[in-house]
Amino acid sequence: MPIQNPKETLERVRTLAERSGAAEVETYFEFITFAEARVREREVELVQQSAITGFGLRVLRDRKMGFLYTTDLRRKILDEMVVRTIALAAQASPRDENRLPDQTFIPAGNLEIEDASILRMRPEDLIPLARSIEDNALAHDKRVQTTRSTRAGYVVGEVHFSNTFIPYQMFRSTEAYYSCTAVAVDGDKKREGSYFDRKRIFQDLTTPERLGRKASERAVAKLGAKAVPSTKAPVIFEADAAGAFLGGLVGAFNALNVLEQRTFLANRKGQQIASPLVTIVDDGIMRRGLGTRPFDGEGSQTRKTVVVDRGVMTRFLHTAATARRSNVTPTGNATRGYDSLPVVGPTNFYIDRGSAKPDQMIQQVPKGLYVTGSAGFGFDLTAGEYSQQVEGFWIEGGKIVHPVEGVTVAGKLDEMLLGIDAVGRDLDFRSHIASPTIRFKELTIGGV
Amino acid sequence: MPEDHSISRRQFLRNGALLSGAILAGGAAGAPWIRPPEVEAALMGIGQELREILNPETVNRILIEALLRGGDFADVFAEQRFRTNIVLDDGKIDSVTYGYPRGAGVRVYWRRQTGYAFSDEIQYESLLDAARVASAVVQNQGAVAPIDVSPRSIHPPFTISSPVPLMPETSKFDLLRRMDAAARAVDKRIASVRIEYADDVRDVLIGTSDGVYAIDRQYQVVAACTATAVDGTNRRTGFASLGGRVGTDYLARRDPETVAREAAQQAITLLTAVPAPAGPMPVVIAPGWGGVLIHESFGHALEGDGIRRGTSLLSGKLGQKIGAPGLRVVDDALWGYGRGSYAVDDEGVMGQRTVLVDGGVLQSYILDRQSAQYLNLKPTGNGRRMTYRNWPLPRMSNTYIDRGSDDPASLLSGITKGFYAADLGGGSVDTTSGNFNFAVRMGYLIENGKLTSPVRGAVLIGSSLQTMERIEGVGNDLAVEQARGTCGKDGQMVPVGVGQPTVRFSSITVGGTAI
Question: What is the pLDDT of residue B322?
Fold first, then answer.
């Protein structure tokens, strides 16, 4: 326990910085405990328990900003670093938006992000869970004889915060997770399949049995995959793949990128940028959400923001500084760790549930691609272009006919979003960014 | 409407804050650079303090504690860093950051099992605790006695006379402002410029149960320019960077203003670029950063963890032919001033130059101690970790396709329709199947042996073994990119170098929109 009394340390450092010439001071202290068990081929590969402690300090003087982070909390060093950081800040440029939030937030009731049963867990409790996941992955199919990695873990985090205007605040949150990457072998072909789940409340987590089985199914499904000829065709992104796609797109809604002309959505507020079937939401106060927190990284109140309303661009995501530059209210999207300045980031970010049944979305496609996973980089958010390696299945006559790999999908993002012609009803949160299954009317498929 | 109910405390408190600031600012901020010597030592290096806490004797005692229940190996790793980050955006110095992370970890491994524990403070007692926690992974086999550590001399592969991270802050601010002005001056259509500067002074201390006691200092710097050009609704981004483990003399050779102009020029060129083609075609990849290809296609698959688990497609392939006869691949931790260079790795093995592939035949894996022991091979000095909070994994250093004999210009001839990848983005790989991808930032069409229209971004994909068979020519223009590679694996990010000469492939699948 490096800090016995976080509140006292925060107050002391804040006062020291204010006395040393900083006009506005923000202190941020993070204490995170995590534990993980890894099992492979029925042997325990790793049991880990760690605790990290870090401190971040933001100082403003004459609208100039400096930032310090450290894990060295010895008083002599910390005091020295505070003074040094204030001197560093003096060399920055003054910016009118360099002001700390000064609105005391109103807690939005019980957000249910802390689970007492996870607080009570010990690292050794994770071992039988991880074993059970792997056993189920191996039992499901003969072609799966090993896993690359099977993990069970939990995280307990505490954030302590105060600034010159907002008095000391703290919150605690928990997470538990399972993951498994199974390896399927058929002759000299090896293919991996992964599945994971992550939840705030242990009871909400899927069972080890189901998790292992899903990983195994995904690995086996890839055996016999082949490339398809290059063509233009309808492409369905299954919910997980659609969530990953949305994750790649989220920077386009970042207000700083809008201000600096680094997103294809700059100057598009109020316009129809997606199909009327598409509503995109950022919800920082969603009960049990993995991105939920009572206040954001700089003490602004978190909230629910409709980003795209039935296809119309309504609101970008803001920190206090981007909100000030854009002359709007902040959206509570300042994201950070103790070792980083607040930047715009999503809380719980999702495409809202639609009405289509995923299997019917496939049945309506005469010839096309069903994408279950993507890899690597492929978003050019400034230019609004997308091109990515994907894997999945080929659809012929409304039916899945064979797995594919060695293919890419590409399109212009504005045309892609306007061309979404079905949104599934299968929204499920296993990450803080999620989407139901979506279907693009037409993308370019690069193959053989 | 939460805002309506909340209380604004800003106006209320500001006067008070200003008053106390006015009284005390003069004294405190007036002499910020004069520090007591012991504070300076603690901040800027493995000073006397750290050497005293973790002297050979205390390190021995920690290692004895770590192996009390048995185990194959134990090590102590302490790290202290001083990092400076400066961001210039919209023509202004946006933020300035000092980072001062510090801590130490103890590892024990026994066969395939790893125990690791760390502390955010560097204290003998907390490291003894860490040793006990780490040793719990061993099923009490009976104590193993470590070899007493003795100091090892580190032979730096190159000397950095005046490291960039130790430049005065004012010079760093000046560097950013000059880059910003140079990028903006390229063209009126440059609408925004962002420069991100980051430097790092990393001091490490490693003690191992096989007797190594090593201390090293590693300097690192990068300054990256992102320029955005806007013409009507057409927006393009250009990128260029400088850096490596370099001194101020480097800045005379790699002129920061030229780097900034390269980024701006790329954005302007891309405004007129045509959509990328889709499908398989002959591909030529530019030297330097084009080495992302070998990093993704073979590099990761050669790392010892996947090899020993048998999950890599290159497991068990030592001595076998895995690529075209002209293919020679090297991993070189001693490459001059490289981003991935080091004299000693993060588990006390000296860095080295390893030929991975020669004449298309697999010669060596990329090994840390644990995977080397399991495979009954010698470690190759590739045990690296992101911070003291992580245990080492087998990782690449500077990895490149070695120089060939072809004239680079000749590699375009005979291609009637193909793709030239001039600048890349990032990439990734599935080491089990060998399917890899990397993004192309800017390319050109090859038509009848000549570069013609600039092409906008696309992704290139392939499977490792097939692609490396398809090498048709290797240029004599080897370059290793030292200013922009960061490799992520298992959540650990480490700086790396990648490189290659111009390389031609008979066919790679291009993922564009034009078919």
Answer: 96
Task: Provide the pLDDT for residue B40.
Answer: 62
Q: Please give the residue of chain B at the shortest CA–CA distance from A192.
A: B432
CB A388 within 8 A of CB B459: yes
Confirm if B84 and B166 have CB atoms less than 8 A apart. no
Residue A307 has pLDDT above 80, yes or no: yes
Q: Does any CB of chain B come closer than 8 Å to the CB of residue A47? A: yes
Q: In the structure, what pLDDT confidence band is assigned to residue B38 with cuts at 50, 70 and 90?
A: low
Establish how many alpha carbons lie within 13 A of residue B138's alpha carbon, considering only the half-sphere containing its beta carbon.
26
**Chain A residues touching residue B512 (CB < 8 angstroms):** 387, 410, 444, 446
pLDDT digit string, tens, across residues B162-189: 999 998 888 999 999 999 999 999 999 9
- Write down the pTM of the prediction: 0.91
Do A21 and B461 lie within an 8 Å CB cutoff? Answer: no
What's the number of CA atoms in the CB half-sphere (13 Å) around residue A2? 25
The mean pLDDT value of chain A amounts to: 95
On the question of pLDDT at B2 being above 60, the answer is no
**pLDDT computed for residue B39 by the predictor:** 61
Confidence check: pLDDT of B9 > 50: no
Please name the residues in contact with B37: beta carbons below 8 A apart, sequence gap of 6 or more: none
- Alpha-carbon distance of A2 to B101, in angstroms, equals 14
Q: CB-CB: which of B25, B94, B96 is closest to A91? A: B96
Residue B463 near residue B483, CB atoms below 8 Å: no
- Name the residue among A81, A375, A382 with its Cβ closest to that of B437: A375
DSSP, residue by residue, A285-308:
T-TT-TT--SB-TTSPBP-EEEEE
Gyration radius of chain B over CA positions? 26
CB of A45 less than 8 A from some CB of B? yes
For residue B134, which residues of chain A lie inside 8 Å, CB to CB? none
| B92:A45 CB<8 A | no
Q: Does A62 touch chain B (CB under 8 A)?
A: no
pLDDT band at A120 (very low <50, low <70, confident <90, very high): very high
Q: Which residues of A touch B133 (CB under 8 A)?
A: 49
Contacts of A264 in chain B (CB under 8 A): 235
Nearest to B208 by CA among B154, B145, B147, B153: B147
* Interchain CB distance below 8 Å, B309 and A148: yes
What pLDDT score was predicted for residue B10?
A: 30
Measure in Å the smallest separation between the Cα of B426 and chain A Cα atoms: 6
Chain A residue numbers with beta carbons less than 8 Å from the beta carbon of B96 are: 65-67, 88-89, 91-92
How much is the ipTM here?
Answer: 0.91
- B36 pLDDT band, cuts 50/70/90, is low
Write the residue in A84, A222, A227 that is nearest to B32 by C-beta: A84
Q: Which token pair is B161?
A: 């006379």
Does B513 contact A48 at a Cβ distance shorter than 8 Å?
no
Query: How many CB atoms within 10 Å of residue A351?
Result: 29
CA atoms within 13 A on the CB side of B5: 7
B278 → closest Cβ in A89, A93, A444 = A444
Find out whether B410 and B436 touch, Cβ atoms under 8 Å: no
**Structure tokens, A145:** 């004889």
Instruction: Provide the phi-psi class of A261: left if phi over 0, else alpha when psi is between -120 and 50, else beta.
Output: left
pLDDT at residue B19, rounded to an integer: 26
Query: Which residue of chain A comes nearest to B23, CA vs CA?
Result: A19
Q: Are B209 and B77 in contact (CB under 8 A)?
A: no
Residues found in chain A = 448
- Write the CB contacts of B188 (distance below 8 Å, at least 6 apart in sequence): none
At A378 the three-state DSSP class reads: coil
User: CA–CA separation, B459 vs A128, rounded Å?
Assistant: 42
Q: Which of residues 323-362 of A touch B (CB under 8 A)?
A: 329, 339, 341
